[in-house]
Amino acid sequence: MKKAFFLSLYISVHILGLSRTGFANEVSVPSSETVTQHYVVMAHAMFTEAQAAAADLALATDALLRSPNEANHLHAKQAWVTAHRAYSRTEVFRFGNPNVDDWEGQVNAWPMDEGLVDYVADGYVSDSGNPFAQKNLIADAVVLDQALLRDMHEGAGAEANVATGYHVIEFLLWGQDLNLTKVSAGTRSYLDFSQSQCASVHCDRRALYLKESVDLLLADLADMVQQWQLGQGDYAKTFMALNVDTRLQRMLFGLGSLVYGELAGERIRVAMLAQSQEDEQSCFSDMTHFAIKENVDAVADVFNGIVQAKGQRIVGPSLSDLLLANNAKKHQALMLAFTKAQNTVDKVAQQAKNGLPFDQQILLENIEAYSTLELLIAQLRDQAILIESIDSQQLAMVKVMR
């Protein structure tokens, strides 16, 4: 797999002679064909990174289940944070690509009625009308395997019945965030996975649920890596068979939709309006700021043809190159919009690092942090407007300049 991965990068960046350093002497403006090809390469690389991070998570959770202790529990939680950050960068391929949209719900669904999965605190408020809101699969006598988890996911037609994916794993590692202090996350004990010193009950089934969930996640990511392999993957071949204008449309639509409708709207604005911790994405770990930052940075990177792969920064033919050749004024405005949003999201992340997690930043009483989120929403809106104003047909007709 590694050989094929690096070969595809080599074809996209080197054989075509389209590395940034080579533009001045060889090709000033790449063809729209090579831009869309590099997009596929970036997707494959980023899903491969997410798969590798999930494999590390699997090793860490296996260590926790073999030897439940504080250190192994902390390591597993840190591995989850790294894995979800890697996944969050791949969300730039949502919305414009049906294969990712059809798949995303089983790996990153939220918010969840955690009572479906495990015990919850007294006074737990579930999604209205959800018959499985407090089913507690871990305490149930039903056979706990991957088939059951797939079947229960969005069971009874309720999206809150999240039985698989990153946030189920997050809940199993952290437990509910009861905000024991304003800055605390979930406080589940490692003893919840101990067979000899079980802190609650059903520790054997909780360990099994964690194992099955991580294995399902690995399988889902392996499928997406295969789909995006240039020249071989099912979706990669489907995508490249489309006319080039349609490919560019999908790329632009995906970026614009993530920036505003999903990120600025569903992930930030909804939580601010509701003043609700339950409406933040990573509500058990209080690591929502990382997902927001990775989304913002990945949009700018993919537009500019940049991918971080195996510790290397690769740059190839991009939408940015085509837009610069087509409309230099709009290109300048969009590059400035990217920079503004990235600077602001860095402040959001820094505030979280300084002890004010996202579920506190959304509160009206935290005036400065709240204002920073308001500013980020406005900047993302401006960014989305610029992206959505780009004419894909004009980009498709940009001439290659040598």
Short structural description:
With 402 residues, this protein is mainly alpha-helical. Helices cover 61% and strands 2% of the residues. The protein has a single domain (2-109, 164-396), classed as A middle domain of Talin 1.
What's the average pLDDT?
92
**Side-by-side strand order of the widest sheet:** 1-2
Q: How many strands?
A: 2
CATH class wording: Mainly Alpha
Main sheet attributes: strand count, strand direction, barrel closure: 2 strands, antiparallel
- As a percent range, the share of helical residues equals 55-70%
Q: Briefly note the CATH topology name.
A: A middle domain of Talin 1
What is the CATH architecture assignment?
A: Up-down Bundle
Structural class: mainly alpha
Q: Write down the Rg.
A: 22 Å
What's the name of the CATH homologous superfamily?
Answer: M75 peptidase, HXXE motif
- The geometry reads as globular
Gap between N and C termini: 34 Å
Report low-confidence residues grouped into runs of 5 or more: 1-27
Order of helices and strands: HHHHHHHHHHHEEHHHHH
Query: How many independent structural domains?
Result: 1
